[in-house]
Give the backbone structure.
Amino acid sequence: MLNINNNAARIKREILARIAKLQLEGNLVEGVHGIPREMAPRGVEPVRCCVYHDREILRMRVIARLGCSLEEYDDEKKLSQYAEEALMRESPTWPMLTVLDEACNACVRAHFMVTNACQGCVARPCKSNCPKKAIVIEHGHARIDGERCVNCGLCLANCPYHAIIKIPVPCEEACPVGAITKDEQGKQRIDYHQCIFCGKCMSECPFGAMMDKGQLVDVVKHILNGKKVAALYAPAVAAQFRAAHGQLEAALRAAGFSRVWEVAIGADMTADKEAGEFEERMERGDVMMTTSCCPAYVRAVKRHVPALSPCISDTRSPMHYTAEIAKQADPDCVSVFIGPCLAKRREGMDDEFVDYVLSIEEIAALFTAKGIDVLKTEPVPGGTAPTASGRNFAKSGGVAESIRIRLKNPARLRAAVIDGLGKAGMKQLAHYGTVQSGEVAKTADTPNLVEVMACEGGCIGGPSVITQPKTALAQLAKYAEG
């Protein structure tokens, strides 16, 4: 996994903060054109061929952070025009992801390569095991014929010196469902019918070419227009800031939100309902039930493992229940979910109670733009306090444990946890699908409750986090028990 401390992430967060600052000053349309020039000044060593190319790439990054699609990019259109369109926008636009082709072209197609570590050994298992005769020996070293190679990887698997390596395309490698491929021009394309919006391509691309379209401009616009804007922050958000209870609420209010709701309250409601649903399903003889709070998982089943669809809990997510509470308290409020997840943006588009979804990176950028230090805010009392188990929804295993402690007979629970929907996680899903369909017989060890998190470690390892997952896990433990 690409470390969250990298230059691509820094650039993204700086652009977000600059956009937010300009908007708060009432100078977005007039000032946005200066962002590329200010971030790539003359005299600084360019990342690419020259400073002007760097500025053009930054210009496109700004467009995506304004919430516009690069697939409709017009190089003759001014950044001020894109900013005007963003400010006039009534709601987020589809799709949620956009691809920066200029950056994407830096990746070559995935292939295998023989390194200088090759010893030209007598055994030559790479050549013997190649089904397409693509390995040739030249001057005592192996070479792969690209015309014949089918990227099966048998040469890599059989080389005793580990002299053969795979050169991957990071986003393709990270995508667990094969939704990303290169077209004839060598540019990445996303099949949105197959995509589960896990965000792995976005977080793993070292060029920052896979980008989520921002919604921060939309939210700040409503705040500046005097609307009542309610912030709904996920438990994973609290784990990103080393704040005491009440400090994050104070920071969000200082940022302009009229009311703040902790989504762990909705998590408690989800756990209550799923515990009841689990007991009902077991009484009627269901093979298993799976949790429903991770929208990437739900979509993965519906698109790729339909046999498992009957097992998905009918209970709605914590985001939904908290947004419903917020709308009941004030039907005219603009509800804004804040979380680490790309899939929540997709869920938010379909949820009648959710107006916008901000990433942790976006809310951190807003704090930066307003000069808010969360750790220095004076704590404010919150509303109804959730349980520790509700807050622990943010970590892998937390949902299953929340259900277990609510059951009348916890001993009947046989829980399993899929910690991350990588390729291995998708294989686990496929296996459970065969159990549900009856292709594989149910055994005494077959779990009757399966918790699935698309992100390794849970939501604290989401694609837009700003804190290392291990640190966030420790912070979550303190926050949950506070």
Notes: The first strand starts at residue 97 and ends at 99. The mean pLDDT is 93. The two ends are 31 Å apart (CA to CA).
